């Protein structure tokens, strides 16, 4: 598969896919996608996608990835070559330049404090909030051992902030779009990180 494909999903298909059913067993998928989705039956890497209160899922194998994401009016299934995943995630999350400038490049929050700041918008990090999004990749490194890698970003009028846990707190660092994209490119596991290789 070399081209991307985006299709609108029925409520039945969305419910099946978000409930944890394997992508090849989902009910209500658009006709003609059964063979393509069957390639993802044993996909070694899964994605959790979140934008604010909206959540989605993804599956990634050696050559193909499927992303189930909400849009303003519907749910979309994006089928893309695996090497395109960072570009699709960047586009979905509107990663790009911002005109503002932060006065503080790094802030640490105690547990729970960042969630309160996001809810109230009363901190420089959350003032002018456009979106808060996160992508988590999960894969087996060996039977019963699940590894995770994530990219979490607060998008505001003053720019993009990377979020990371550090020593029991949450560290939020002002960053550039190119740095966020670099993190997205490093999100998926390398073949030697997987118990059975990617695909």
Note the topology:
Blueprint: E1 5-8, H1 11-18, H2 34-38, E2 45-51, E3 54-60, E4 64-70, E5 75-81, H3 85-92, E6 106-109, H4 113-120, E7 129-142, E8 145-156, E9 159-166, E10 169-175, H5 177-185
Antiparallel strand pairs: 1-5, 2-3, 2-7, 3-4, 4-5, 6-10, 7-8, 8-9, 9-10
Comma- or semicolon-separated keywords:
alpha+beta, 2 domains, ten-stranded antiparallel β-sheet, 19% helix
H and E string: EHHEEEEHEHEEEEH
Distance between the termini: 15 Å
Please state the average pLDDT score.
88
Which percent bin holds the helix content?
10-25%
* Helical segment count: 5
The radius of gyration computed from the alpha-carbon positions, rounded to a whole number of angstroms, is 18 Å
**Largest beta sheet: strand ordering:** 1-5-4-3-2-7-8-9-10-6
Strand content: 35-45%
Q: Tell me the major beta sheet.
A: 10 strands, antiparallel
**Extended strand count:** 10
Q: Structural class of the helices, strands and pairings?
A: alpha+beta
Q: Choose one word for the global shape.
A: globular
Number of domains: 2
- Parts with pLDDT < 50 across at least 5 consecutive residues: none
């Amino acid at each position: 598969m070399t081209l991307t494909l985006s299709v609108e999903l029925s409520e039945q298909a969305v419910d099946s896919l978000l409930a944890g059913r394997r992508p090849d067993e989902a009910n209500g998928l658009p006709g003609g996608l059964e063979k393509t989705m069957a390639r993802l039956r044993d996909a070694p890497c899964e994605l959790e996608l979140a934008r604010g209160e909206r959540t989605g899922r993804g599956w990634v194998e050696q050559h193909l990835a499927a992303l189930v994401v909400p849009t303003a009016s519907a749910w979309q299934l994006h089928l893309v070559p695996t090497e395109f995943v960072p570009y699709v995630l960047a586009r979905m999350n509107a990663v790009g330049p911002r005109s503002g400038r932060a006065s503080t490049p790094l802030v640490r929050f105690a547990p729970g404090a960042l969630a309160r700041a996001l809810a109230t918008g009363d901190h420089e990090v959350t003032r002018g909030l456009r979106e808060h999004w996160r992508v988590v990749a999960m894969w087996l490194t060996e039977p019963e051992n699940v590894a995770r890698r994530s990219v979490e970003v607060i998008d505001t009028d003053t720019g993009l902030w990377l979020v990371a846990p550090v020593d029991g707190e949450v560290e939020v660092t002002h960053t550039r779009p190119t740095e966020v994209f670099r993190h997205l490119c490093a999100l998926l596991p390398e073949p030697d990180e997987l118990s059975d290789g990617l695909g």
